[in-house]
Amino acid sequence: MLRIGLTGGIGAGKSEVSRQLAALGAVIVDSDLIAREVVEPGTDGLRAVVAEFGEGVLRADGSLDRPALGALVFADPERLAALNAIVHPLVRARSAELESAAGEEDVVVHDVPLLAENGLAPLYDLVVVVDAGDEVRLDRLVRLRGMGAEEARARMAAQATREERLAVADLVIDNGGTLAELAPQVRKVWEELRERH
C-alpha cells in the first residue's frame, strides 16, 4: 500500500483532484467527509462540539449549523484550535479504519485540507499539493462558492500559506488554470504514484 497525503488551500481545487484520482483507481480517504460524519446528530463528536461552543451551533433539527460554527472559529485561532482538538482525533481514528480496509496493491490517497497546518506530512509516503495562487483561490471562493470576499480571505488566512504547503510537497499539481489543463497533470501524477508503488 502506498499512502499519499493530498492537500491544498481552500479554493485550490483539491476536491476536484481527489475526484479525478478516484476515477483513475485511487482509494480516497476524505477527511472533510469524515469530519462531517463524526459530528452527525447522535455522535459523541457533536455532543463535544455543543459542550464546547453551546447550543447556538445547532440547527432546529439538531444537526450542526456549520456557518454558525464557522463564524465562531475561523477568525479566532484559539476557538479554531478548540474545535480541532475535538474533531481531529475522531477523524484520524475513522481514517485509519477506512485505510485498513484497502489492499496492499492500492494507492490510498488521504484528502487532508490541514495537512501542512497540523504537521502531518511525515505520516505519508508522499505528499501531493494542489496549488493555485491566492487571487485565483479568492476568485473561486467568491464566484463559485458564493462567499463574501472578507469571509474568503479570513478562511484563507486561517490556513497555511502557499509557501508552507509547498515546503511539505513531494509532488505539486498546478491548478491555476482550467479543468482541461488540470486533467493531464493529475494523470501524470497518478502514473508516477503507480510507478513508485
Overview of this structure, please?
- The protein is an alpha/beta fold and 197 residues long.
- It has helices at residues 14-24, 31-37, 44-53, 66-73, 77-100, 134-143, 149-157, 162-167, 179-196, and strands at 2-8, 27-30, 107-111, 126-131, 171-174.
- The chain has a five-stranded parallel sheet, sandwiched between helices.
- Helix 1 (14-24) crosses helix 9 (179-196) and helix 6 crosses helix 7 (149-157).
- The longest helix is centred in the middle third of the chain and has 24 residues, at 77-100.
- The mean pLDDT is 94.
Measure the end-to-end span: 7 Å
**SSE pattern, N- to C-terminal:** EHEHHHHEEHHHEH
The Rg value, from CA coordinates, equals 17 Å
Structural class by secondary-structure content: alpha/beta
What portion of residues is helical?
40-55%
Main sheet makeup: 5 strands, parallel
* Lateral strand order in the biggest sheet: 2-3-1-4-5
Low-confidence stretches: none
Number of strands: 5
Count of separate DSSP helical elements = 9
As a percent range, the share of strand residues is 5-15%
Mean pLDDT, as a whole number?
Answer: 94
What is the molecular shape? Answer: globular
